[in-house]
DNA sequence: CGTGTTTGACCTGCGC
DNA sequence: GCGCAGGTCAAACACG
């Protein structure tokens, strides 16, 4: 987290609008005391108002800077979080390896964040050093942002999946769902979908999106179904044959395909690149969106009111 | 009636 | 060997 992103937060927030007015009145009355026969000239009152206007402009500028800094911090935190999730995922996979004692090619694949950070790497040293003959199946992990109110554990990645099981695991109170690819009868690909744990415990709220962890096992032995094929097979998903990284219609969305790494994922790479090249305007929209979210958050407004009242008193 | 989902039972592997 | 936990199966059920 860049410390340079922080700005001076000690603001004169004009929390007591009467203060300056009183000051002006005091000046006015002082003037009356000093020169009781001569009224304060209109010009002087005008100057006071202009001064106050300039001060408010400065405050506005400072607030804008703060908001921008907040946006940077938000992105930094998100990056940190994803690093943490990656580390946790690797640990989880390593324990899974102990249990299953099988060789796997694991490559975490993270898609769907506003900053466009896509991490497709072989960070697990062991799996990277595995002998070639041990690599039997391809496992990729994808983090997908979903609507928190949606508990269906459905990750729309363009394939046709059939749910064959659901299990409550020990370290996650939310059930994990098991899917098989049903687009082709002989397709060996399986998918596990479970809610991201950290969000469940720390950050889930009505306002915050949640994340699903989709673990793909194996490779499709068929081509990616075209939108029309998906529409025929699954009409309810026809409007969105690919996974939508952001389900908020009002927010800037980045629609990314969730593919197998090295398989049909060129589109995902291309679109991720587009996200990387996102102009500063997106940052601006993000900041505005955060500001709206903050102002709509009753907790935030309550805390702000408490802080203001505390300062007034 | 066909298809997909749910859910309890069962299987398998691992740690102690 | 036993218990635990993850993964899978399959009958029952729901839905269009």
TrEMBL record:
For this protein, the record's PROSITE patterns field holds: WRKY
SMART domains attached to this UniProt entry:
WRKY
Tell me what this protein is called: WRKY transcription factor 18-like
Q: Where in the cell is it found?
A: Nucleus
Entries under Pfam families matching the protein = WRKY
**In the record, which residues are listed under signal peptide?**
none
Q: Which residues form a coiled coil?
A: none
Tell me what organism the protein belongs to: Gossypium australe
Q: Where is the WRKY domain?
A: 150-225
What GO MF terms are annotated?
DNA-binding transcription factor activity; sequence-specific DNA binding
The answer on whether this UniProt entry bears the keyword Nucleotide-binding reads: no
Sorted UniProt keywords: DNA-binding, Nucleus, Transcription, Transcription regulation
Q: Which GO terms describe its cellular component?
A: nucleus
Which superkingdom?
A: Eukaryota
Instruction: Specify the taxonomic lineage.
Output: Eukaryota, Viridiplantae, Streptophyta, Embryophyta, Tracheophyta
Q: Which SUPFAM superfamilies match?
A: WRKY DNA-binding domain (SSF118290)
């Amino acid at each position: 987290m860049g410390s340079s992103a922080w700005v001076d937060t000690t603001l004169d927030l004009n929390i007591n609008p009467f203060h300056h007015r009183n000051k002006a009145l005091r000046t006015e009355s002082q003037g009356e005391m000093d020169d009781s026969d001569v009224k304060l000239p209109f010009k002087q009152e005008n100057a006071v108002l202009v001064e106050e206007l300039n001060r408010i402009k400065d405050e506005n500028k400072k607030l804008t800077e703060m908001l921008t800094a907040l946006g940077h911090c938000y992105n930094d935190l998100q990056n940190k979080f994803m690093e943490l999730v990656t580390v946790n995922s690797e640990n989880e996979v390593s324990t899974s390896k102990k249990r299953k004692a099988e060789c796997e090619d694991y490559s975490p694949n993270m898609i769907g964040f506003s900053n466009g950070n896509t991490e497709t790497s072989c960070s697990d040293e062991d799996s990277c050093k595995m002998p070639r003959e041990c690599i039997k199946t391809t496992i990729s992990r994808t983090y997908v942002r979903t609507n928190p109110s949606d508990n269906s554990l459905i990750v729309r990645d363009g394939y046709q999946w059939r749910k064959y099981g659901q299990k409550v695991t020990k370290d996650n109170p939310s059930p994990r769902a098991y899917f098989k690819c049903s687009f082709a009868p002989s397709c060996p690909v399986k998918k596990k979908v479970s809610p991201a744990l950290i969000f469940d415990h720390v950050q889930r709220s009505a306002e915050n999106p949640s994340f699903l962890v989709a673990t793909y096992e194996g490779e499709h032995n068929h081509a990616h179904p075209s939108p029309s094929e998906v529409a025929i097979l699954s009409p309810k998903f026809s409007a969105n044959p690919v996974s939508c990284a952001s389900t908020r219609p009002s927010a800037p969305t980045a629609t990314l395909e969730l593919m197998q790494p090295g398989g049909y994922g060129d589109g995902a790479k291309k679109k991720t690149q587009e996200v990387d090249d996102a102009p500063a305007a997106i940052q601006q929209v993000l900041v505005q969106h955060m500001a709206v979210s903050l102002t709509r958050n009753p907790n935030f407004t309550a805390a702000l009111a408490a802080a203001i009242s505390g300062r007034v008193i």
